[in-house]
Specification:
alpha+beta; 3-stranded antiparallel β-sheet; two-stranded antiparallel ribbon; 5 strands; about 35% helix; about 15% strand
């Protein structure tokens, strides 16, 4: 028996369907001008990295006199989930028409470049993108967190 081993990739997902606030900001545009994303299903390495982000860790400095328990940062995890799985962001452009994400597939970008772009976006944009990521990777949303 042969098994397809490449990850499944979503069809273009309109961001206006992920968020009413995004739809409000996008306004009425032609279908071919709508902002959309293409997302791939996570692979096992993504799941391992995600589990590491969610794991509670205790950090100690010096001889252990100072320690801190570090827990999951959901916003940081959402950024990583997007970086691991985004293939393309369509029609999200700066005022001059330059694409916000200049290279595809996005999950192949250097993380520092992705982080700079992601961090400069308004929350309604990143939240809509993240909802599309979770739509394509529903097992990541088992608690209904976003």
């Amino acid at each position: 028996m042969k098994v397809k081993t490449s990850p499944v990739v979503s069809p273009p997902i309109p961001l206006r369907e992920m968020s009413e606030e995004f739809a409000k900001h996008e306004g009425e545009v032609k279908d071919e001008e709508r902002c959309m994303v293409i997302v791939r299903q996570a692979i096992e390495q993504d799941n391992i990295a995600r589990a590491e982000l969610q794991a509670k860790r205790q950090m100690q400095w010096g001889a252990g006199a100072v320690s801190e328990i570090v827990e999951d940062n959901p916003r940081q995890r959402f950024m990583y989930e997007a970086w691991w799985t985004l293939v393309e962001v369509i029609n999200l452009e700066y005022e001059d028409g330059t694409p916000v994400f200049p290279s595809t597939p996005i999950h192949k970008m250097k993380f520092a470049d992705f982080e700079k772009i992601w961090g400069a976006r308004e929350s309604y944009i990143t939240q809509a993108i993240h909802k599309a990521v979770r739509k394509t990777n529903p097992d990541w949303d088992w608690e209904g967190e976003g």
